Amino acid sequence: MSSQLSLPTLDRLGSTIPDDLDVQHVAQQWFKAFSAGMMARRPNAVGSVLVDDAFWRDMFALTWDMRTFQSSPVIERFLTDQLRTFSLSSFKLRKELVRLERPYPDLAWIQGFFDFETQVGIASGVFRLVPLSNGEWKAHAILTNLEDLKGFPEKIGSLRNFQPNHGKWADQRVREKEFADADPQVVVIGGGQSGLEVAARLKALDVSALVVEKHERIGDNWRKRYEALCLHDPVWYDHMPYLPFPQTWPVYSPALKLADWLESYAHTLELNVWTSSAATSVTPLASGSKHKWRVVVNRHDGQERVLNVNHVVFCMGFSGKIPNMPTYPGMDTFKGQILHSTNHKKALDHIGKKVVVIGACTSAHDICSDYYEHGIDVTMCQRGPTYIMTTKEGMPRLLCMSIYWDGGPPTEIADRINASYPNYLLKLMHVRVTKDIAEADKVLLYGLQKRGFKLTFGVDDSGFLLLAFEKSGGYYLDVGASQLIVDGKIKLKSDSPVARFTPSGLEFENGSTLDADVVIFATGFSDVRSSYREVLDDAIGDKLSPIWGLNAEGEFNSAWREVGAEGIWCMMGNLALCRFHSKHLALQIKAKEEGIFGTRYTDSWLSEHHDVPRARL
Question: β-strands 311-314, 568-570: how paired?
Answer without folding.
Answer: parallel
